[in-house]
Design a protein that fits this description.
The chain is mainly α. It has one domain: Four Helix Bundle (Hemerythrin (Met), subunit A) (Up-down Bundle), CATH 1.20.120. The protein has six helices and no strands. Helix 2 packs antiparallel against helix 3 and helix 5 runs antiparallel to helix 6.
Amino acid sequence: MKAWILGSFAALMVSAALAGSEDPIHQRHELMEDTRDALKPLVGMVKGEVAFDASVVESSFATMKHTADVAGSLFPPGSDTGGDTEAKSTIWTDRAGFEQALVDYDMAVDAAIAAKSQSVEELKTVLGGVTKTCKGCHDGYRIKDE
């Protein structure tokens, strides 16, 4: 009986996880939170609030690369409303511009990864390019928090 209950509970949890993961609004929200969390220690390093750590830099940029790889697929037609989406309608009305913003972000992240920053000074150089592309996309394609 215990095995059946545990098996049913496990199946229910997997089903719930898969159902939630099919919602592109939820998926992109989680993706952006992961990206924000990856950015925090880098900003801390640049500000001198966190000790420089090349492995954290590498890991953070790897998270951002994942965002660059999957973000575009998380804005399918019909996902412009509902949930707590912060996506502006311009994502769908200016799709070419949005796609270019994603390409710009991807290129900036690739450059940051290739730089293999070994100091705060090197990190500052590449992080500015990445955050500039983040801001560019947010300015044009994200509803600002009031």
